[in-house]
Amino acid sequence: MPSPLPRSFLALLVAASLQAAVAADDPAFDVPQWKDTAPHKSGLVPANGTRLNVVDWGGTGPVLVMIHGIGDNPHVFDDLANALRGRFRVIAYARRGHGHSDSPEGPYTLPAYVEDLRGVMDQLKIPKAHLLGWAMGGNEITKFAGLYPARVNKLVYLEAGYDWSDPAFVNKFLAAASSLGPEPAELRSIVIFRNWYRTAWLGPDTPWTPGLESYLRDGVRFRSDGLVQPVPTDKVVEALVKSLTDPPRDYASVKAPALVLYATSFFPPAPERPEADAAMKEFNAFMASFRKGSRERIERELKGAVVKDVPDRNHMSIGVRDPQGLAKTIGEFLK
Questions:
Q1: Pairing of β 258-263 and β 306-310
Q2: CA nearest neighbour of 319 among 201, 165, 196, 191
Q3: How many C-beta atoms lie closer than 10 Å to residue 224's C-beta?
Q4: Does residue 154 fall inside a structural domain?
Q5: Phi, psi of 152 (to 5 degrees)
Q6: Could you tell me the pTM of the whole model?
Q7: Residue 52 resides in a domain
Q8: How far is CA 182 from CA 16, 126, 199, in A?
Q9: Per the domain annotation, does 2 fall within a domain?
Q10: What's the domain count of the chain?
Q11: How far apart are CA 110 and CA 38, in angstroms?
Q12: Torsion from C-alpha of 240, 241, 243, 246, nearest 10 degrees
């Protein structure tokens, strides 16, 4: 994989991973004093030598702990969590260096993130839980299930059935992401940036919700000049990108039943940007083959896994578009 990556590119990559867009003609979300009114509790929990921001949507039934991907924050699960809380107690947390969790000097490695998960469960007195990992969150749930099988009920891989340590995937993903931008002018205000992100990463037909706005607000800080400053920092992202070269996942060590959900594309089309659109098409073509190989490996090594495609979804829209339908699929597997 390319090394070292420019800090400016890292900042844009993180921003692209954690913002979401709202239509420019909807001013309801554009006020600086916007507040999250969704039912949940949020607070810092000591875990593994740092403090992690835990979001608890409550609910009844078995505990479901959800782990977001690189550059994201727990509010990416807002709408899905509210669709699941009638059957589960739903919890997520910001990984170290993300959202409103602490950003220690380090480490930002898979073993550290696994122990963070264990620390959260210990602090909240959760002896055993279902685990859901989105994207890079699949690393934690795989390793955790192998190390601590007695603490895992079932696993859900949400667009997480890929081994990010594969150099072919990492190199092509970073190259494709860099071609998306944004242009400097698209960073001048939160409204402009939202519209860019919605087109580039979600697709313009993905509905916008207050839950997605919470995700947006939790992942940025507003500068005095009106620009948005993404979280995590360049330093954290650089460490995370390096951690992608950790040893391959050991699916064979997982004994828990698993549901593996794949989107049918990774990036949405970008017809308004011909150069980026060409790059997206090239990456999506690569992903068709890589997804097939990843799926075959899952079916071979993760014994008994239930593998499904979610049609008309990409890597980011799979978890936020039609959360009720996704909750039904997950709930039926976990029951």
A1: parallel
A2: 201
A3: 5
A4: yes
A5: -120, 130
A6: 0.90
A7: yes
A8: 8, 41, 11
A9: no
A10: 1
A11: 31
A12: 150
Q: Rounded distance, CA 280 to CA 277, Å?
A: 5
C-alpha–C-alpha distance, residues 60 and 100, integer Å: 26
Q: Is 308 helix (H, G, I), strand (E, B) or coil?
A: strand
Element (H, E) at 297: helix 274-301
Question: Which residue type does 257 have?
Answer: P
Q: Is residue 1 part of a domain?
A: no
Strand pairing category for 129-134 and 63-67: parallel
CA atoms of 224 and 72, how far apart (whole Å)? 23
DSSP 230-278: ESS-HHHHHHHHHHTTSPPP-GGG--S-EEEEEES-SS---TTSHHHHH
Amino acid at 134: W
For residue 182, whether the previous peptide bond is cis, meaning omega lies within 30 degrees of 0, is yes
What is the distance of C-alpha 273 from the center of its chain?
25
Listed in sequence order, the residues at least 6 apart from 209 whose beta carbon sits closer than 8 Å to its beta carbon are: 78, 79, 320
Q: What is the chain's pLDDT, residue by residue, as a tens digit (335 residues)?
A: 333 333 333 444 444 443 333 333 344 555 556 788 888 999 999 999 999 999 999 998 999 999 999 889 999 999 999 999 999 999 999 999 999 999 999 999 999 999 999 999 999 999 999 999 999 999 999 999 999 999 999 999 999 999 988 888 888 888 887 787 777 777 777 777 777 778 888 888 888 888 888 888 888 887 788 777 778 888 898 898 888 778 899 999 999 999 999 999 999 988 888 888 898 999 999 999 999 999 999 999 999 999 999 999 999 999 999 999 999 999 999 99
User: Which residues constitute the domain of residue 97?
Assistant: 7-334
CATH code (residue 266): 3.40.50.1820
The answer to whether 154 touches 258, Cβ cutoff 8 Å, is yes
Reading phi first (left if > 0) and then psi (alpha if -120 to 50, else beta), residue 138 is in alpha
Rg of the chain (C-alpha set): 18
